[in-house]
Amino acid sequence: MSLPPTELLRRFGLSAPELVTETTRAKVWRVRQKTDTQAALKYYPAGHMGNETSGLTYLERVEGAGAVRVFARSTDAVVMEWLQGPSLGELARRQAPEVADRGLTDVAAQLFAAEVCADGLLSVAAIMVPLRDACFTAPEAREAQDIAWACLDQMQRGAAETVALHGDLHHDNIIHTAQGLRTFDAKGLAGPRAYELANAFRHPRGCRAFAADAQVIRHRAITWGRVAGCGAQEQLRWAIAKLLLSMLWSGQEAPEERALLRQMLRVVEKGLPD
């Protein structure tokens, strides 16, 4: 069984490590604090957190308002609140996607209400710039690229307010704990409010038929746009831009993603409330 370095446990006053997950970048253990409460210890063997640093900064600033609490961190490790319970994604896959959507909406509202500082967080504009030169073959992807360019231009002109964002808010990144809903795995971005729930239009995982339903897309655009303080049309345009960005990152124009993109474009074409 893999154990954290002894020095790491001593540094944070932790004991009884149980390995939970391991990736090429980090390892996570469930541990005990001196108060005998559970916590999560995430260790980065490379000696740094890489692009996860911005997300942890965001979570520290939110201070538990709908998000996991960060107890302590150093350059190569972080100790966070242990989140026990099912994810909203699991709830959705148990035939309750509408209930999961309402939970996601509530968490987004809490995060927006926190109004934390966006200074030093990774810019949404910076991660979207590659869409300008990307080459897509599917006609719906090329149509979506025009929308993504318009979103990027709006941001770069300063036409949209820049706020602190979780940056990857969706159903499988929210746990239903005994203390309430808590999100984790933040990217920590600075960008327009409409970006916050843009990625959620592709989720929950395993519920593609639900996510691709035109009435669901329309309802989400109206509801999530209201929470973000923007029009439904703007919210859905950002969702289209984010879906295209995800396709670019994957290096694929997968049939499922293309089908969802076509449906989203149809809803935009029919029009939504401003």
TrEMBL record:
Q: Which domain of life is it from?
A: Bacteria
Q: Which GO terms describe its molecular function?
A: phosphotransferase activity, alcohol group as acceptor
Sorted alphabetically, which Pfam families does this protein's record hold?
APH_6_hur (PF04655)
Q: Which InterPro entries match?
A: Kinase-like_dom_sf (IPR011009), NH2Glyco/OHUrea_AB-resist_kin (IPR006748)
Q: Which GO terms describe its biological process?
A: secondary metabolic process
The protein here is known as: Streptomycin resistance protein
Q: Which organism is it from?
A: Tritonibacter mobilis F1926
Show the taxonomic lineage: Bacteria, Pseudomonadati, Pseudomonadota, Alphaproteobacteria, Rhodobacterales
